[in-house]
Design a protein that fits this description.
The chain has about 675 residues and is an all-beta fold. It is about 0% helix and about 50% strand. It is built from two helices and 61 strands. The strands form 16 sheets. The protein has a five-stranded antiparallel β-sheet with strand order 51-52-53-54-61, with no helix packed on it. Strands 1-2-3-4 form a four-stranded antiparallel β-sheet, with no helix packed on it. Strands 7-8-9-10 form a four-stranded antiparallel β-sheet, with no helix packed on it. The chain starts with 9 loop residues before the first strand and ends with a strand. The model is unreliable at about 660-669 (pLDDT under 50).
């Protein structure tokens, strides 16, 4: 309701010809256009300006071939004329069901069927069935299935017969395999195949979890989803397997377990109406992210919300820095975490962990902390060794504050508050490489150079020794350097806060500069860079993620906050490309993972962009009002004929795209 729903009980869902979503609730109908929700709890009757309330629940919504919407409001039948933008009451009482069959509107009153004639704007009697009260209808080839409060009937030609007696039928659905799915109110789930064989689904904790079955929908993979009193269920017809989804404290789960309505829109998004939790929706082709939340009390979540640098060990487990919860190790097979936090025993000294690296030969994890110095974890023995103890005793080696650690070419390199060091892992002896500057991060390239930055200055020095040399400032605009990496082809990438990305090509001995303006980066305030398994460059920024390819001259960007679980990233948040192609992104409120190739799944349905509202002199123009500007609603109007006084215009637009819209652009170097 905080998003605008008039009531938390969503009993019916429908998408109109403009792509807007209609939600029937216990208190009127709601229309969602992707930006805002319009509440309809009353309407004007004709030209009399009399207000009539939409009283009570709207539990069935359907549409006809003209785009008009019909809904059952308690026992009344309402129609919304999409071109006139008006509600009308077709019948005030007696309606027990409304359905759209071949885009024609059918209604039931008691045990009788009626067809709606749009030309005459009236209901016409079809036939009396001599059944109990009709609650739902479905067409399957030549068969018309009729669900009543005391059984399931089928009408074939002129013969009506009962196939499932003494069962109150709630919903009917015909799948793409031409199988009829039958939801009963209190007696479970039934399936009827094309040969007419009836099977009741098994009621158990591993099959159908409730005897109270509600709406159905079929996804693009031919799975059947259905609502129950005890959760949302999905049936995989190829594996003959049922799964159930229920509310939990994890982000992205159901808000309420009692599911009443389901609908699949034009993009394949599935909308789930619950009885007290409002509306949830998801899109399988677009929901490619696995979210790892901060969940301190459970091994299925992170111990701290702010996620920093990461590294992968030889068993493909992921070791993760946090800004206050120590080191988390993600077992990538079973998706569980192990926490390594500061304690009096065998542990790191401080839980504010800034950097991490891995020595594969010795199976050692090196951990750099803020005020806790450098630690080493031996995965074989399970023992920690803290170098801060030796520093405080001898004064040698990195001190309390560690900025960056990197194991490269058999050496451990450490930038600390008291200098830039390297250590021989066999002897554990440290050598000072530079103690005149405070280096925040660095990279070691294949040419034998160490690239170092103090934040605003960039330096190079030979790994073999020699003087540190300042790299000539790349631009007159001074911007903080946040990350330096070398790609597999030897190219150097440098991200900045406010000045985009700089690239150095050794072969050409040339710098290039890439920004929002020149290359359509998502933002010039860049935090981190990694190379993906596809040799593309993944960049994190204050606005989200960009994956850019110099081979294809294209950039694919994802704005965070609406997709992927985490709301934002900041400086210090980690990125990691695992050996199997999985990408991990640390944020300020957890971590996400995804596969790069899953991002590029194309949707054949192009969302429609349409003009939704017209305001003249700050007054909303409606079809047939005194202004005489619109004869039909704005989306159906080809042109506007205005007087010279009608010159203060506002034209609003909407889109039927309910999944996050990515930016996929091309640029030329």
């Amino acid at each position: 309701m905080k998003d605008g729903l008039s009531n938390p009980s969503v009993l019916a869902i429908y998408q109109d010809t403009l792509g807007r979503m209609w939600f029937g609730t216990n208190e009127g109908v709601n229309i969602y256009d992707g930006k805002q929700i319009y509440k309809c709890k009353s309407y004007l009757v004709g030209q009399s300006q009399q207000v009539k309330l939409i009283n009570g629940s709207i539990n069935q919504i359907v549409g006809d071939s003209l785009g008009n919407i019909y809904m059952r409001n308690n026992h009344a039948l309402l129609r919304y004329d999409i071109r006139k933008e008006k509600f009308e009451e077709i019948r005030s009482s007696g309606i027990s069901s409304v359905a759209s069959i071949n885009r024609k509107i059918w209604c039931a009153m008691g045990d009788s069927l009626f067809k709606y004639d749009c030309n005459r704007d009236s209901l016409h009697f079809f036939r009396k069935l001599n059944t109990s009260t009709i609650l739902c209808l479905a067409k399957q080839g030549e068969k018309l299935w009729i669900g009543t409060n005391k059984g399931l009937y089928v009408l074939v030609k002129d013969l009506v017969r009962c196939v499932l007696p003494e069962v109150e039928i709630f919903r009917l659905f015909v799948s793409s395999h031409n199988e009829l799915w039958v939801a009963s109110r209190m007696k479970g789930l039934y399936r009827i195949n094309q040969e007419g064989q009836i099977r009741k689904a098994e009621y158990s904790s591993t099959r159908v979890v409730s005897e109270q079955i509600r709406g159905f929908v079929e996804d693009d993979r031919q799975n059947i989803w259905f609502g129950t009193f005890d959760g949302l269920q999905v049936y995989n017809p190829y594996l003959d397997m049922y799964s159930v989804y229920r509310p939990s404290y994890t982000l992205g789960t159901l808000e309420h377990q009692s599911v009443f309505s389901l609908y699949k829109d034009n993009q394949g998004t599935i909308w789930v109406g619950t009885y007290y939790g409002g509306l949830n929706y998801f899109n399988q082709s677009k929901d490619v992210f696995q979210y790892y939340p901060y969940r301190k009390i459970s091994k299925e979540g992170l111990s701290f919300p702010i996620v920093g640098q990461m590294v992968e060990d030889k068993d493909h487990d992921l070791w993760i820095c946090t800004d206050g919860g120590g080191v988390n190790c993600l077992n990538r097979k079973n998706k569980t975490f192990t926490y390594y936090v500061a304690s009096d025993g065998n542990s790191i000294i401080h839980d504010n962990v800034k950097s991490i690296t891995y020595d594969k030969k010795r199976d050692h994890i090196y951990i750099g902390t803020y005020t806790g110095g450098l630690s080493r974890y031996d995965r074989k023995s399970g023992k920690f060794h803290n170098y801060l103890d030796e520093f405080e005793r001898t004064g040698k080696g990195p001190g309390q504050i560690i900025y960056h650690v990197l194991f490269k070419n058999g050496w451990l390199y450490v930038s600390a508050r008291n200098g830039f060091w390297r250590m021989n892992p066999d002897t554990n002896e440290f050598q000072i490489l530079d103690n005149e500057k405070l280096f925040l991060t660095f990279e070691i390239d294949k040419q034998g150079y160490i690239w170092l930055t103090t934040g605003f200055e960039l330096y190079k020095m030979k790994v073999s020794g020699g003087e540190r040399q300042e790299v000539q400032r790349m631009t007159e605009r001074k911007a903080k350097i946040t990350k330096i990496i070398e790609a597999s082809d030897g190219t150097i990438y440098i991200s900045t806060l406010g000045n985009g990305v700089y690239v150095y090509n050794y072969d050409k001995e040339k710098w290039s500069h890439h920004t929002v303006k020149s290359d359509n980066l998502l933002s010039d305030f860049c935090y981190n860079i990694i190379e993906t398994a596809n040799n593309n460059i993944l960049l994190s920024s204050d606005k989200g993620l960009s994956i850019y390819s110099f081979l294809n001259h294209s950039i694919y960007s994802i704005e965070l906050g609406l997709r992927g679980g985490i709301s934002a990233v900041t400086e210090g948040c980690g990125l990691w490309a695992a050996t199997d192609g999985q990408i991990y992104v640390g944020g300020v409120d957890g971590m996400i993972s995804f596969r790069e190739e899953d991002l590029y799944v194309e949707n054949d349905i192009v969302p429609r962009l349409y003009f939704s509202e017209l305001l003249i002199n700050d007054v909303r123009i409606e079809p047939g009002d005194d202004s005489e500007v619109l004869k039909e609603a704005l989306p159906f109007t080809g042109k506007l004929d205005l007087s010279y006084k009608q010159n203060n215009l506002a034209i609003l637009f909407s889109s039927s795209n309910y999944v996050e819209h990515e930016r996929n652009v091309s640029f030329f170097l």
